[in-house]
Specification:
By secondary structure, this protein is α/β, with parallel strands linked by helices. The chain has 2 domains: 251 residues, Rossmann fold (3-Layer(aba) Sandwich); 44 residues, no CATH class. Helix content is 41%, strand content 13%. The chain is built from 9 helices and 8 strands. It has an 8-stranded mixed beta sheet with strand order 3-2-1-4-5-6-7-8, sandwiched between helices. Strand 1, helix 1 and strand 2 form a beta-alpha-beta unit. Helix 1 runs parallel beside helix 2. It is globular. It starts with 8 loop residues before the first strand and ends in a 21-residue tail after the last helix. The structure holds NADP nicotinamide-adenine-dinucleotide phosphate. NADP nicotinamide-adenine-dinucleotide phosphate binds next to helix 1 and helix 4.
């Protein structure tokens, strides 16, 4: 029986560990040929070692699958181009880019350093843009040459960004930026046969093991196993997902859902006198739905946006 992704060629960034590793293994088990990218660095983004990616490749090839390791930094312009070229040269084409690589440098805004801000924006936002850009150019060229694409970009957002989490202005801004990038790229690339979606995952990994999730009981840990994210990623890479684009999905062992984007809420007639703005905003606040917390429930509590 052929797999859901039989013959598809996919790049998975940050696939040496955590969620990306599960993506790569499941994609390969469903017949995809995988470029396993991983910098092999520390959680703060320093260092570089091909071994985590190589280990994943060995697991895949050991089970009869096809994979190749790539140690480029996703946020490197040339590195991202090399990664896309590697897929095309090794496997004869490219059908999907899964932008998953990420780092954390959590800090309250008032203490955050410039380096902490820059590193997170660099790896997440540029690290989503650069591989997507080279892949998009490849698919555009094919479309112009009369070839047909059925291609995918799958990005990684976060509830920290789309809903908000204290201590993560850098990370959340990058992840909300990735959600916006997803929506806009979906609109641009539709004409070339490319869909663009994002996943906001929840999992216990090296990234999250020090955030309190480690105190979960066995059932809680199982629900936060990163393998829960891979089925959605694998389906999005497959040809079955062609009608779905511009969406941000939430996935974990606790939930599979779709996030609804920013949309215009209540309105009042335009006001050209600052003295009249207060009553107009009061009316809007009384009607507006509350923001969402990270569990998808209406946000409440100290420091949260409250009714006027
Ligand atoms: P993880 O276990 O730390 O894995 C992240 C991977 O990204 C690592 O393999 C890391 O490689 C790689 N990476 C980091 N910087 C890179 C770079 N510049 N170039 C190439 N690879 C790089 O974390 P995870 O939890 O699986 O996170 C995967 C994605 O899900 C991230 O985008 C994260 O923000 C997102 N996410 C996770 C959660 C969660 O609950 N875990 C929630 C929301 C969003 P090395 O360490 O080997 O260098």
């Amino acid at each position: 029986m052929s797999g859901l992704c039989e013959g598809r060629v996919a790049i998975v960034t940050g696939a040496g560990r955590g969620i990306g590793r599960e993506h790569a293994l499941m994609l390969a088990s469903e017949g995809a040929k995988v470029v396993v990218n991983d910098l092999g660095g520390e959680i703060d983004g320093t260092g570089g070692d091909l071994s985590p990616a190589q280990e994943v490749v060995e697991v895949i090839t050991g089970s009869g699958g096809e994979a190749i390791a790539n140690g480029d930094d996703v946020s490197s312009w040339e590195g991202a181009q090399r990664m896309v070229n590697m897929a095309v040269e090794t496997f004869g084409g490219l059908d999907a880019v899964v932008n998953n690589a990420g780092i954390l440098r959590d800090r309250m805004l008032s203490n955050m350093t410039e380096a902490e801000w820059d590193a997170v924006i660099q790896v997440h936002l540029k690290g989503t843009f650069a591989p997507s850009r080279w892949a998009a150019a490849y698919w555009r060229e094919r479309a112009k040459a009369g070839e047909t694409n059925d291609a995918r970009i799958i990005n990684t957002s976060s509830v920290s960004g789309i809903y908000g989490n204290p201590g993560q202005t850098n990370y959340g801004a990058a992840k909300a930026g990735i959600a916006a990038f997803t929506i806009i790229a979906a609109q641009e690339l539709h004409r070339y046969g490319v869909t663009v979606n994002a996943i906001a995952p929840g999992a216990l990994t090296r990234m999250t093991e020090n955030l309190g999730m480690g105190e979960l009981d066995e059932a809680g840990k199982e629900a936060m196993n990163p393998r829960w994210i891979a089925p959605l990623c694998t389906w999005l890479v497959s040809e079955e997902s062609a009608p779905v684009t511009g969406r941000v999905f939430e996935a974990s062992g606790r939930v599979l859902g779709v996030a609804e984007m920013w949309r215009r809420g209540p309105t009042v007639d335009p006001v050209d006198d600052p003295n009249e703005i207060g009553p107009a905003i009061k009316e809007l606040m009384e009607q507006a739905a509350p923001n969402s917390d990270m569990q998808g429930a209406p946000i409440t509590g100290p420091g949260r946006p409250t009714p006027f």
